[in-house]
Design a protein that fits this description.
The protein is of the alpha+beta class. The protein is about 30% helix and about 20% strand. The chain has a 9-stranded mixed β-sheet. Strands 12-9-14 form a 3-stranded antiparallel β-sheet, with no helix packed on it. The protein is globular. The two termini are about 50 Å apart.
């Protein structure tokens, strides 16, 4: 009897081993929430709003996120201090707001609308999520931090969007073509970020190019349908009330909120390809925050300008020869546009000239130039991605692409007290470590910088958390450990 039991046990062991070999074990992260396949990388963290020049040079220019911990706690920010349910009902109760009827984002599901007072009556018990572009009344309570007050940032502010629920919201994994400053006013949000350099992995399977989002189930990832996600490094930030996070344009991200009243807002701004330091030098003092009405919201054509100027990124100035070579349209209208931009008539375009010409008037006069150049940019990027994908032999052999039915696309969610105390903005050095309606992708001009970022990220996987201090700032690099939250 004893020997029979032993043989039975060994038979079971051999059978189980055979099954694992023949049928394969589930890959890491399979059937789990997005991000469980690898440990996260840390994000640069500072304890205040970054200054404009440092923010641009170390984060916007190189495309890296930055976590501004408790930045709102040190400022008089009306939306942060006033926006409770009573205030909403009294001041904004009659405003029609856009409401999604599922806390788990569904891009094929149209939002509904209702007065904010009605939303306040139901949001604590129903599966609803207010995603509202701030109107004129709300703008009175929304401020722009010192980070975006000069250097050109203040001229490309595109929108502000309010995100309000009782928590447990989950977005799709997606990217935007606008830069994003996200601030949490109440509750907690967990943000998963993926560098745009991994587009060939993220977009390999089940990616909606028009909607700029992945169809992967963020609550339970099917790694057999999305096998290339297994190799994607990712960053993590957990934002609490008063925290702000810069999400670089074209970075993939997925956001979920903890259970409980959850309120956030974000400011969209077009990506800057050059920073105007002279604009900042004109000021000796800045308010820590100022009303967004101080600058106003830019024309949507500023985003067109940003896409157009990407052709010239990396050049100190643009002469006629470069201008004509970069833009894939006939020369005569290009000569006319060049003359419009070249204010000093020296046949060389400076970045100041490229950012100060009237973009609305130019789009009206030369619509074909802007339309054709942006389409050509997408074509070049798509061809570049195809080459990159074909070179990735190991991943290409893993599986064929899964056929997923097309779904109807909806419009992406983005459509987006003056402090008396003054502060002197010093020339500090910080040590480096929501969705838009326009679709455009990374061009080969980003490749050199992006390859450097990939190498840095691979090194970060092996690097222990470090703390760096200087006379002005403490910047923390940390890998935040996973822990289970209520919403999971």
């Amino acid at each position: 009897m004893h020997f029979i039991d032993v043989f039975t046990v060994w038979g079971l062991i051999i059978t189980c081993s055979w099954l694992r070999i023949c049928h394969g074990e589930d890959p890491p992260g399979h059937g789990q929430p997005l991000g469980k396949h690898l440990s996260p990388l840390g994000i640069t963290l500072i304890g205040k709003f970054s200054t404009p020049s440092v923010f641009y040079e170390h984060f916007v220019k190189v495309g890296k996120p930055i976590f501004m911990k408790q930045a709102l706690l040190n400022s008089e920010y009306p939306a942060f201090s006033k926006w409770n349910d009573y205030y909403f009902r009294e001041k904004y109760g009659s405003i029609e707001v856009s409401v999604e009827t599922s806390k788990k984002e569904r891009r094929n599901q149209e939002p509904t609308s209702m007065p904010m007072a009605d939303f306040l009556n139901i949001y604590k018990r129903e599966d609803v999520y207010m995603v509202q572009r701030a109107n004129e009344q709300m703008m009175e309570d929304i401020h722009v931090p010192v980070t975006l007050q000069c250097g050109g940032f203040q001229r490309v502010l595109q929108d502000a969007v309010v995100w309000f629920s009782s928590g447990n919201t989950r977005s799709v994994l997606h990217y935007d073509v606008l830069d994003n400053l996200l601030c949490v006013l109440e509750g907690m949000k967990e943000v998963l970020l993926i560098n745009k350099t991994y587009s060939h992995l993220v977009e390999a399977h089940g990616f909606d190019q028009d909607g700029m989002y992945s169809r992967v189930d963020v609550d339970s990832v099917n790694m057999k349908q999305f096998p290339r996600l297994q190799k994607v490094p990712w960053y993590q930030a957990r934002l609490q009330a008063g925290d702000c996070l810069y999400i670089p344009f074209r970075w993939y991200h997925q956001i979920k909120s903890a259970v409980g009243r959850n309120l956030a807002l974000n400011i969209w701004f077009s990506h800057l390809w050059a920073f105007d330091q002279s604009d900042c030098d004109k000021h000796t003092q800045f308010n820590l925050t100022v009303p967004i009405k101080t600058f106003g919201v830019a024309s949507p054509n500023e985003q067109v300008r940003s896409l157009f100027l990407e052709f010239f990124y990396g050049l100190e100035e643009v002469n006629k020869s470069s201008f004509f070579q970069m833009i894939p349209v006939e020369q005569k209208p290009l000569e006319e546009l060049f003359a419009v931009i070249d204010k000093d008539k020296n046949s060389v375009l400076t970045w100041k000239e490229l950012y100060l010409f009237d973009i609305d008037d130019a789009v009206r006069q030369f619509p074909n130039i802007f339309h054709s150049s942006i389409l050509e940019k997408e074509k070049v990027r798509d061809e570049s991605e195809n080459i990159e994908e074909n070179m990735d032999d190991d991943e290409a052999d893993m599986t064929d692409e899964i056929d997923i039915p097309e779904r109807k696309n909806d419009i992406p969610r983005s459509q987006m007290d003056n402090s008396d105390s003054k502060i002197i903005v010093d020339d500090i050095t910080e040590h480096s470590e929501l969705k838009s309606t326009i679709k455009v992708k990374v061009t080969p001009k980003d490749k050199v910088e992006e390859e450097k970022q990939v190498l840095e990220e691979k090194q970060d996987l092996k690097r222990k958390p470090t703390v760096t201090e200087d006379s002005k700032d403490t910047v923390l690099k940390e890998n935040i450990k996973d822990k289970k939250h209520d919403e999971l």
